[in-house]
Amino acid sequence: MTDGRVGAARCAVLARALGEPLAGTGPVASRWVCVEHRGAWPRTVGSHTDPSVAAFVANAEAGGWRLLLIRRPGRQCDDPDGPSRVYLTDTAPATARTTVLTVAGPAELADVTLPGPGESLPGAAVPDPLLLVCTHGRRDRCCALDGRALAMALTGVDELDVWECTHLGGHRFAPTALVLPTGYTYGWLDQAAAVAAYKAAASGEVETAMCRGRSTWTPAGQVAELAVRAATGLRDAGVLRADHAPGGAIVTAQDGRRWSVDVAEVAGGARPASCGDDPVPSRALRAAGMRRLA
Fold first, then answer.
1. Do 145 and 156 contact (CB within 8 A), yes or no?
2. Dihedral of the CA atoms 132, 135, 140, 141 (nearest 10)?
3. Using CA atoms, how far apart are residues 67 and 166, in angstroms rounded to an integer?
4. Residue 243 phi, psi (nearest 5)
5. How many other CB atoms are there within 10 angstroms of residue 231's CB atom?
6. Separation of alpha carbons 66 and 27, rounded Å
7. Chain segment 157-207, per-residue pLDDT in tens
8. Cα dihedral 151, 153, 155, 157 in deg (nearest 10)
9. Whose CA is closest to 273, among 171, 146, 127?
10. DSSP per-residue codes, 23-87
11. What is this structure's pTM?
């Protein structure tokens, strides 16, 4: 498998062969806005040729939101200017929830007011999780090939709300996916692992297998939280909080228990940051030590 150059392996293949750690590689975003968009996706959502979409992206990013374009698997383009759903998500454990609005078309995105920090989300509550699989081929070939294959396979599974989405980061972990409203991201998923992640979220829990981390936290916080879950077996998605600390993070549970987790950077071999890019040093985070504080 190559990226079009003779002998050049795809970045997801190289990263898997290197055994790169997944923890701490998730995107960092406490709030997400996902816009249903059936037309072509540009390489970056901010460079969209539709000025209504580009303006909404700029407004979202200025307000601290991470924006994704989403569509149902299969690249349906029946009416790119038709009604679209806009999902808003707050991933903070105490307030994790997703709501949905409907707009008549891209031009109406200007009428959507994104709430500021601490403000409640407008729209109707969405009771079930969303599973967003990155299929953004213009960013990386691995997402186009591996992500689309996974998304299509999951359409045959009952009770899953599955979408394709734009760039999540971490092409080398394709297929990669985001679960909302918790914000946990996953890599190197197969159908069984994706279903397990979704069903755990539907039960208010988190599946830690193949988990890259919760987008609510910094990379060090993602590593620290997953390390505490591994040590304690805690699965409830809402019981842990990870706060920055020198050299790592402090993880606090709802019952008052606290852990200090040291996080260190480890260097590995060389891998492409994305298919077609020049090789860069492979660096990752790992939990280097954990001690109980309370």
1. no
2. 140
3. 9
4. -115, 145
5. 14
6. 9
7. 988 999 999 999 888 888 999 999 999 999 999 999 999 999 999 999 999
8. -130
9. 171
10. TT-S---SEEEEEE--S---SSGGG-SSHHHHHHHHHHHHTT-EEEEEE-TTT--S-TTS-EEEE
11. 0.92
